[in-house]
Structure formats: structure tokens, C-alpha cells
Amino acid sequence: MVGILFSRSKLSHLQKQVCSHIVQGIRKETSKIREEWESSLTGKTPTLSENSDQDAYCFELLSMVLALSGSGVGRTYLAQQYPLLQDLFSLLHTGTPRIQRQVISVLRRVLPEAKPQTLASILSVPNLPPSEYSIVSLASREDDNEVYDVNKPGILDVLLACIGKALTVQTKIKASGPQKGVTSMTLAECQLDSKSASSTGSRWWMRGKMDSAMANKIISLIQDMASGLLSETWATVTKAAVAEAILALTKLDENVRAPQTCVKTPTMWLSLSSLCVLDQDHVERLTSGQWVSSPNGQHGQPRPTCDNHDDGETQAIILCTECGNLCADCDRYLHLPRKNRNHQRQVFKEEEEAIKVDLHEGCGRTKLFWLMALADSRTLKAMVEFREGKQSTAKSGLGVCRFCGTSSNTGLLAIGNVCADTECQEYAKIACIKTLPCGHPCRGIKDEDPCLPCLHRCGKQETLKQDADDMCMICFTEALEAAPAIQLKCNHVFHSHCVRSVLSKRWVGPRITFGFSLCPICKATIDHPVLRDLLKPIQELFEDVRRKAMMRLEYEGLHKAEAITTPGARFYQDPAGFAMDRYAYYVCYKCNKAYYGGEARCEEQAGAVEEYDPQELVCGGCSDVSRAQVCPKHGTDFLEYKCRYCCSVAVFFCFGTTHFCNACHDDFQRITNIPKLELPRCPAGPRGKLMDGDECPLHVKHPPTGEEFALGCGVCRNAHTF
Ligand SMILES: [Zn+2]
Ligand SMILES: [Zn+2]
Ligand SMILES: [Zn+2]
Ligand SMILES: [Zn+2]
Ligand SMILES: [Zn+2]
Ligand SMILES: [Zn+2]
Ligand SMILES: [Zn+2]
Ligand SMILES: [Zn+2]
Hints:
This protein is an alpha+beta fold. 35% of the residues lie in helices and 12% in strands. It is globular and about 100 Å long.
């Protein structure tokens, strides 16, 4: 139909009529879905479910729109349907996931055709952000004195809100008292006490939550917009809008800076969202220098006067490497000529307005004197730390715990600058107490040679990509400097105790997987000399699983499978990776060796196992109840049992009598109560289901379902079947 509609370069009257019907249809559906969304927010009704007839009509209409947007004529037409654009943004927040996905696809195609100015008026956004968004140009603009309105929406807020509603935010208060601990919350949770749509004004979509898959799609949409993939105009507006949302934090009034108030402002959440889509341009253009009020402060410098005025009283704002200290007027005037425009300039601000923006390893961060906020786009975790008072006084050295920052004059801090807190005392036991050549204390661990590079990035530390204020990406609750840290072989830095805990806890669930042993940032294998005690057994287990999986791959004749031999395939020339992904192995509780428990996809179908008793994981050799023959070639190393209740390889051995596969184990209460005669015959699927056909998936003759059966040596058995 779409082909016929848009095969020409202009729309006929009939075609226009069909389109306007679709647009009207969407309008009706949108308001219906919004109503249901509103009532689901108040908890009166459940949220709309996907693939129900509730969302089906809207989904079909959007499929038409998506098809229309495939042609140039279609995109131009759609971009002019202002009510439709409005509806799309509404559905983005209220629709079911499949509707949201369609909306995002349509937006990707239609936005390049829509002018930012038009979109602004559709979304009742009063003005676009200044395209010259760097704080240097903002500082030299005259009308910068306008009062900041917390409720004034920005052009991209409707998209940024999608990210904000998926964030988990930890808040911390760094104060002088012994107030440790963090609170964790989502936007939806901190709105619980603000009643209705009226509290968010025109930004009604700031309410509710968004799932993380959708937030990730929005993150990549905004990143593509910023990189110019949609259009150059949108690239400029997007970067400026992200900058605007971040700078908004500096404009927050003193009375909303109190933690409990601040976390409820849209400003806070939108700026955290912006940190997820930060790019390197922002880092340089948004960071300011800082004047200090006291002339003896160690950081920054006292505020100078304008060199150009030379009257000894007009205060400078901008420091230009060529022209010296300048006030806003002189800066504008001197840098007007084209030849002067590439001068290196930096804005200097009072401590109250100074801002520092950073982007380290995908984690965006902004620092003001009263707050530090950071957000990680990959995990959608964010962190807001409220700082009390002026930093200049707190930094004065004596009486501040080197880990938690607590300051006190009780004398407890006298030894090594560590407070009495048990955690800090534990950290102190493993911490290095040396002072680095730059004068900063070493933030590494004891007896390491050489010491951890200075986390304040003193000197040229090429290998260091993080700094003292960055969160440890494992715990995501404390800054790197808050506990002794180590730099792994891949150069990433984490708290020593966090890495150790990850390596000790190992994988989640019964099946052995090795994802935990990779760096959370770059996925290189975790390695550091002090971790050898933990890494050695992991390495041995890895080799054991690898060897067994490779052996099985060969016996099954899959070592030349397409997935391994096709260039570009996920496991191209990586048979071991393929085998370990394909087969599921478990650690035997008795002999501590890895044993085979079926193919991984069977386990995935059975669903995630949340709770299990590791004592029930026993290999064939150690659970040889029927005294199966020992294989003359392989002993009991590869001895496998059949699940008593179906034709799958067993994983669990329970009650000292019974072998179960994953799925049957999950459902054991029901299955073990089915009378033996009512159990399905071979071929029997998991959970007592009958399978099609008459070939046993294990390719063996075995006693009826409900009886124990040793499959024998897995290696030899499979060798026979192929
Ligand atoms: Zn402490
Ligand atoms: Zn050290
Ligand atoms: Zn240093
Ligand atoms: Zn940590
Ligand atoms: Zn790494
Ligand atoms: Zn065993
Ligand atoms: Zn089973
Ligand atoms: Zn069977």
C-alpha cells in the first residue's frame, strides 16, 4: 500500500486523506494510552501489557507511519504533521515497549526533516539553547543575568527524561559528622510524595519509569544526533541542549541545594541524564577555572582585574593566553576580529559558580563546590554527592579521615589520618602509607613497588585514565580514593577489596561462567600480582572447563562448525569460546571438578535459577548410585547421568538418590509427585512434557522415565553416536 501511496513525488488528494486518517487515529489512541498510563501511575490499574488488543491498533497505525517514513516524500509529509510529532513524544513515555521502539525508529527518520525551532514550539519550549554553548561565550554574553527558572523546559528534555527515568541514583552527603552510608533511588521513587501532573507542569512525562533497554536506545539516538548523523543542525542543537542541562546545575538557587530538595528537581535528573550522553567537546567547553576568595588558598588564584581596562577595579572573568585577564566587555571586543578568535581562553568563576566537567571511561561527571554528580551510560547508575561548605577549609589537612573524609578533632584521627569507623580501620590495614613525590598520599595498597600512580594525575601518567574522584566501577558507591585501590594489567583502577570480592563471589547461578573475571570497563581478563591467590584456582577451573568442552566439541564433530569457520562470525577461529558458550559446566560439590550438565541453551530455556543448593551439584562420578561401569579409557571423569524425569543430561543430584536436569529440578515438587505411570515416555521433554517424534534426544535406549539411569562415559557415548 505504501508503495502505491508514495510512488510519485507529490501526494494526491486521496493519498493525503488516507494519511490524515492515520494521523487522526494515532491522536485518539495516544490520548487513550495516556489516560491509562496516568491511572497506572496512581497505582489504580496495572500498566498496559504488550501484544494485548489494548496496544494492537496503535501498534498497527505506527507500523504504517514507519513504512511511510521509508520514503522521502513520506518523511517530508510526516515532519509537517505537528500534532503527530506531539503524539509521538507522548507515546515515547506512555506506550508499551513495542510502541516505544517504533516511535524511536520513526523519530530517527523524521527528525532530520523537522526544524529544531518547530519542534520547540510543538513541545512548548520557549527558546533553543544558544548554539555557542561554551562557558567562554556565555560569560561574554550580556543578557546572562536573567533569572534561572527551574521549570523552564529545554528542547531535548523529553528525550533526556527517558534516560533519567531509568537511572538508579545513589546520594551521599559528605559532611563533617560521622554520617556514612548512601541512599539509592529512582526518579519514580523520589516523586512518590509529589502528587500529580501539576507538579511537573509541561514536563508531565518526567513521571514514571523507563526500562533500561529503552533508555539505551535513547542514549544512542542522542549520541547519533550529536554526532551529526541526523543533520548538522540537529548536531549543534543537541550538543548545546546537553550542555544547557548540565550548566543548569550551576544556576540552582541556594535554597534548592539542600539534598532532600535538590533530588526532587527536574534539573538534577536531566543533568544526570545529560552526563550519560556527554562528549569530549563538552569537557573542554564547560569547565571553568576558579578564583579563590582568600589570597592564601592553594588552588586557583585570587581574582585579578581586567588588564585592558587597567583601572585596578574592573574585575576580570576571562583569562586569555594572548591578551591576559579580561572582563566580559573587553573579551568580546578584543576577540571580535577573526584573527583573534582562536586565542586560548578560559573562564574563571567565583568558587560558587565554578564548574568542572569530566568524561572518564564512559562515565560523565560534573563537579561544583557544593556537589559532585556522575552517571555511567553503560550501567545507568548515577551518583550524587552533596558537599558541605567551602572546600578550602575542609582541605586543610589535619583531622580529616583519608578514606571517608570525616573531619573531627577528637584525637581519633591523630594516627595516620584514619577515623574510628570499622571500615576505615580495615582499609588502613592494607593501605600504603607512603607519600608520593608530588606530595599526595599514595592511594594504593601496602608493599607495592612501584606505588599506584597518583590519582590526582600529577605528572604524566599515560596509563591512568581515571582519577581520585571517579567512582570505583565495581561498587559504584565510593570514589577511588575512598579505599585502597589497585591498577589492573588493563590499566583500570578499582578498590582492592571490590576486585577481591568479585573474584571470591565468582559467577551467579549454578552454571560456571567466567564473565566475572573480566574488567567491568574493558573486558580484559582481570590481572594483578596481589590477586594471584584468587586468580590461580580460577585459571585452573577455566583450563579444566576449556579442555572438557573442547573434547566434547570434537567428539560431537562440531569443531568445524560454521560458527567457527565463517569469517565475521562471533566465534570465528575461536573453537574454545564456541564450546564454552555451547556447553554448560558445573562444579561438583564433592570432587570440586567441572562436570558437563547439558547444552547451555537448554539451561537458558529453563530460565534463570535464582536459588539453588550448591551441595546438590554433584558430578556423575560422585553420584554413581547405580554403580555404572567405569570407563576403561576415561575413568569416571565424564560419567553422566540422565535426568530421572526426562531425556536430558542431569545437573543436580538431590536427596542422595535422584538426578535432575535444570528444568525438572526447578519444578521438582510437582514432578516428583506425578505417579510413575503418568510420566511421559521417551522422548520426554523437561518438566514432564511429551516431545514430538520418537527419537530420544540422548540417542540411547534407557529404562522408562522415573528411573535412575547412568548414561555412561560422555566422551565415549558421543563418540559412538557420530
Ligand atoms: Zn573514615
Ligand atoms: Zn604506595
Ligand atoms: Zn599527586
Ligand atoms: Zn569499590
Ligand atoms: Zn580494564
Ligand atoms: Zn564429583
Ligand atoms: Zn529433566
Ligand atoms: Zn529418552
